[in-house]
Amino acid sequence: MQTNTIFKTWAPNWLIKGVLIYCMLPSMMLLGLYNSNATYTASYLDIDPEDMQFIISLTYGTLLATVLIEGRFFKYFPTRNYFLFINAASALVLILSAYTSNYYQFTLLRIVEGLCMALPGVSLRMLLLSRFPSKSATIVVYSIFYGLLLCSSTFTIHLMVWMMDHYDWLHMAYGAAFFQVVGMGLMLLVFNTNRYGRKIPLYQVDWISYLLVLPGVLCGSFVLVYGEKKYWFDSAQIAVYAIVAVVFMGLFVLRQLRIKRPAFNMSVFLNRQVTTGMVLFIFFYICRATLNMCYATMGEVWKWEPMHMYSTLM
Q1: Against a cut of 0.85, is the pTM above it?
Q2: Can you count the helices (H) and strands (E) in the chain?
Q3: Is residue 147 exposed (0-12), middle (13-18) or buried (19+ Cβ within 10 Å)?
Q4: C-beta separation of 60 from 184 below 8 A
Q5: How many beta carbons lie within 10 A of that of residue 162, not counting itself?
Q6: Helices 169-190 and 13-33: crossing angle, nearest 10°?
Q7: Structural domain boundaries of the chain?
Q8: Of 124-133, 194-203, 239-248, 252-261, which range is least confident?
Q9: Do residues 148 and 21 touch, judged by C-beta distance below 8 A?
Q10: CATH class of the domain at 1-202
Q11: What is the pLDDT of residues 111-161, one digit of tens each?
Q12: 38: how many CB neighbours lie within 10 A of its CB?
């Protein structure tokens, strides 16, 4: 089956590209939705800032682990139904998050949101690549993707600050869910009911690797978030979580090295471009962390209003 058969025949290429790019935006915006107003969210849930940071880390960790297996789900379900279900589930989770003030319920919903953010990401990029026949397609698509990723956080911050100034917590969730609903409408507009490629049964999903890496990432997040507060390994809790993280991640690496079709090919680390990219990622992550510290200082120490804070940094 040809790639372009999943789109309606009347839809021009520019419209399909625009829809695919838009459909990537909601997932990117969700990454910064609660991070942009972490202090307000923590006060709303009556939790410490570290607890809110841990919730955000759980979302990132779940996203990271789910990326390893999302391709199997994409190839199993009809393309349009797959994306529609994810967007609908994401919108529902956002609305449910607005109606709960329980820490554990909110945490569970954020884990589910991490799943919803991970499932369409790689698939949408792959479909967008198929719409650029030139040799530079990879450069163009990934430039678009990472450009949107860098800008989405700032856009989300400004949008959420405006909504919080004029409305309330509930309307913020409705606004985020609205982007998902618009995406569903655009998908119905350009996608048909065909499947992308051959159907691959779900029993071939490497669930073992997923169940190894997920606890490792989540326990590692707990250590990094709460380690300083609990004086690192002076705390038995931190020591236990660190041991669990090391054991599960170690088992995950050993499994990838031994099986014929690994979920993650460890040989990529031998590529110089990959190692260079990792160094750049660490550098930009430090820059982003520094910017978050600026936000925290302006809000908590200098007592600036959110709208003034973000307009100054722009």
Answers
A1: no
A2: 12, 0
A3: exposed
A4: no
A5: 15
A6: 160
A7: 1-202, 206-258, 265-314
A8: 194-203
A9: yes
A10: mainly alpha
A11: 888 888 888 878 888 888 888 877 777 777 777 777 777 776 667 767 776
A12: 18
